[in-house]
Amino acid sequence: QNEEKWDFVLVSDIHEMGSEKEIKRKKFLEELSKKGFTIKKIEDTKLFYGVRAPQHVFRKYQCLMGNPDRRLQNQNSPQDIPVTTRIRIVHFILHNTVTPNFEKLQDLMKKKVFKAAFPLHEKEELREFLKQNWARWRVIFSQQPIEKIRCYFGEKVALYFAWLGWYTYLLGFAALFGVVTLVAGITLFSSSQVSREICEANTTIMCPLCDKCPFWVLSDTCTYAKVTHMIDNEATVIFAIFMAIWATVFLELWKRQRATVVTDWDLYGWDEEEEELAMQLINNLQHEPQQYQHSYFRSTIVLLLVLLMIVVLIGIAHALVIYRVIATALFSQSSMELVHERADTMAVMTGAVLHYITIVIMTKINRRVALFLCDLEKPRTHSQRENNFTIKIFTFQFFTNFSSLIYIAFFLGRINGHPGHYVRIAGRWRLEECHPSGCITDLFIQMAVIMVLKQTISNVMEYFIPWMRYKLRKKHKRPERSRVLGEEEEAEDPCKRQWLSNYKLNEVNVFSLFNEFLEMTIQYSFTTIFVAAFPLAPLLAFINNLFEIHLDAMKMMRLHRRMVPRKANDIGIWLQVLEAIGILAVIGNGLVIAITSDFIPVQVYKYMYSHCVRENHTDVDCSTGYINHSLSIFRIQNFEPNTLPDFNGDEIKEYRDYRNTDDYTYTVQFWHIFAARLAFLILFEHVALCVKLIAAWYIPDVPQKVKNHLLHKKHTDLHREL
User: Fold this and answer.
1) How many domains would you assign to the chain?
2) 36 and which of 54, 76, 155, 488 could share a cystine (Cβ 3.0–4.6 Å)?
3) Is the predicted pLDDT of residue 647 greater than 80, yes or no?
4) Domain end (from 84, 99, 120)
């Protein structure tokens, strides 16, 4: 039974005798035989080669690395090397074996000499345990068996699931706080003075929101005003500060968690470079290590290309803006009543859907560009390449996902001029205005649409596409095998069925785990950066992650071939990415409260212009009269010609801005509010960043238990040496 364990399976088409592909395949397999590999061939509709490495390869590894897998061996006999390490070493040797024509396995795969190379999902009790207790829905709320995942998929995958589980656990607290904030908004602020004034303003006639649109009455936006005040109030400010602290605490606690887990695995001081050198020497004793190199010229080229790509992504965000402007104009001229009345909301909704589609398309393009830039840099090792790739793709994805949101949050309605002098695209279409009840409503709609679409559609696609592929491949291959069985009644090789069933699973590549991490970091950005405008973001993320963990588990166990286990003692460069997002979250939320929301103008009004400043009436709300104060007056005769709808009544209409009546320049109030916004922004960011720094100092990265364990270990080793 033990003899029949195969480390890897190579699959190839059946080529003609003497053809170029067949000769290349033979040469590659001969190279493996020279290294002492046992090879077993099985013929079906394809050729399958089972590969098993000789024992001396693993003994060399244990000698060089001082047996790093002590902890994993207690389950088997002591000289047995764990399966994950076996697969990793064999994978390395296979991919670094060179034929006489200087071709490696990667080149042969590109030339279609081999179709696939993969380790096997074994029929072992560990796999059955994981299928029963991890990769199924009924265990959705139970603890993940991280130790078992590590024994089957290696440390890198185990750390991903440990991190995802920890992130989801802490998201629970953020989600709870978010819901409390929203409930507070609904109960305390729906009856706020500001929204009451908007609802009662049925004589205030406002300027049209687009060309040829009718004048409108301020009280029409009563419902929206109430909704806006559910998310735009004092509670949101506290929630934004809480989320900035939460992001820091989450990362600090994860560092502690990681230190504990990695110490249990005996990998705290593990060195990736040393292991790679050891495997190179085992594979080829004459191997010379590749030197570190750095070229400023290459770095400059890469930097310029990255900047160019970012400009393209920002250009796409501009295109979305232009789409919304033109869509608003077209919708408002539509003959359908519903479309005509809700033109701006329809434009925002369709714009958000279009934004989602651009995200899906650009994700594929971003990946190609990032890979190309990585090849330009010529990284030395696999992990260095992965780090370079990570930073580039995250930067591109960030701009793809967020440039449109940044425009809505900080530019929409602030760069479009004023009545009688609007900013126009190509001299024709008027730039869009904020929603009448404030810009934060637009941001709320956009965030909600993108988060819901992104999480539902992406998750469904992520699971169903591999599932469909798997089912189709299974269906496609079945008849031929049964026919062959019918012809030859001899006993079938037990390996054949196992190899075939593994081959039918979806292939995994280097980036399989990377994609999961990328998806989660983008989600983490959505959850923290604009959370002030969308307090439900942590709740949506929390619900999504509960499913995500088990969808990923099912994919890995049931639909995909086995991943090549990789060793790791942390989540790598992703930690720096998450820390950068934490700082962006402070800046983003500070800007949303200072610039997007009406929080500052209301406070300035209360403490500088309201009746509370002049006389002490405690029974009247201090924000009484705010709405009237925030409107400016416009004379109709100053409108641009050909843009006016029919009107009757008085010559004066109003719009939301702080401008003088005679020459439409900014009033003193505008500059007061502007100064207050800047002061608040500086104060908020400094306070939040200080609290982050204090939290980071207060929670040590490495628990005392781990430090003491390492201290004791060093002491014992030195004692033994003496």
Assistant:
1) 2
2) 54
3) no
4) 120
Report long-range pairs for 590-593 (Cβ below 8 Å, ≥24 apart).
Answer: 590/240, 590/680, 590/681, 590/684, 590/685, 590/688, 591/409, 591/410, 591/681, 592/240, 592/409, 592/440, 592/443, 592/530, 592/532, 592/533, 593/236, 593/237, 593/240, 593/532, 593/680, 593/684
Q: What is the pLDDT of residues 530-589, one digit of tens each?
A: 888 889 999 999 999 998 898 899 888 888 999 899 888 888 899 999 999 999 998 988
Q: Report how far residue 449's alpha carbon sits from residue 353's, in angstroms, rounded to the nearest whole number.
A: 7
Domain boundary among 59, 88, 120: 120
Q: What is the pTM of this model?
A: 0.88
Closest CA to 61 of 567, 509, 563, 714: 567
Residue 17: give the domain boundaries: 8-120
**What is the residue whose two structure tokens read 């809700």?**
342
Q: Measure the CA–CA gap between 200 and 624, rounded to whole angstroms.
A: 12
Structure-token match 């990946």, residue found? 367
661 CB contacts (<8 Å, ≥6 apart)?
Answer: 632, 633, 635
> Do the domain assignments include residue 73?
yes
Cβ-in-10-Å burial (0-12, 13-18, 19+) of 718 comes to exposed
C-beta separation of 153 from 556 below 8 A: yes
- Paired tokens of 102: 């200087």
Could you tell me the two tokens for 510?
């280097």
> Is 50 part of a structural domain of the chain?
yes
Separation CA 501–CA 41 (nearest Å): 16
Q: Could you tell me if residue 420 is inside a domain? A: no
Q: Which residue has the tokens 């040590």?
A: 700
CA separation for the pair 291, 362 (Å, rounded): 35
456's tokens: 């539902």
pLDDT tens string 241-284: 888 889 888 999 999 999 999 998 888 888 888 888 888 888 87
310 CB-contact burial (10 Å; exposed 0-12 / middle 13-18 / buried 19+): middle
CB 617 within 8 A of CB 611: yes
